[in-house]
What does this fold into?
Amino acid sequence: MKTKTPGIFIGILFLTGCQNLKEVDTTVYMDPSRPVEERVEALLEQMTLEEKIGQMDMVSEWDQDSIMKAGYYDFGAWIAGQEPEAANLLQSFSEKTRLKIPYLIGMDAAHGYATLQGRTIYPTSVSMAATFNRSLTEQAARKAAVEIRSAGNQSQALEKSINARRSVEDIRLKTTVRVLQTE
It folds into this structure.
């Protein structure tokens, strides 16, 4: 006697896969006048599992050519230290996704926004900590945040800091990442 289990399983997979074929309803989640909770719920209801997982992925600007060749844009963020025009180009790739969720664009700020010409280069957090001068460290972080915002980065800046639970040998490899507020 033949079992119907494989046919049922294939049918469920087909119907689940057809979720991508549904027309996207942007009337709620792209309406800034609606409450945030309502917009988030409307978006989550339309997202596939693959899209939800993709939102947890951050890709690097150095992989831009490979990403364009592959034509895969369903991720949540870029790490990029670029001028606003280049960051806008990266952001435009989100328009190629089914739900058009804007990317977060972050950057490595171990030395401030030192990757861009004309910006201040600050000592690393390890060097700043060695001064034992909290006021100076806070002042440098605030100045770096102003420069980061001036370049159009509205989301996050990442910088390395020592993980105090580990040995101080090989600090570069044994670091944690903090998110600097760029307000």
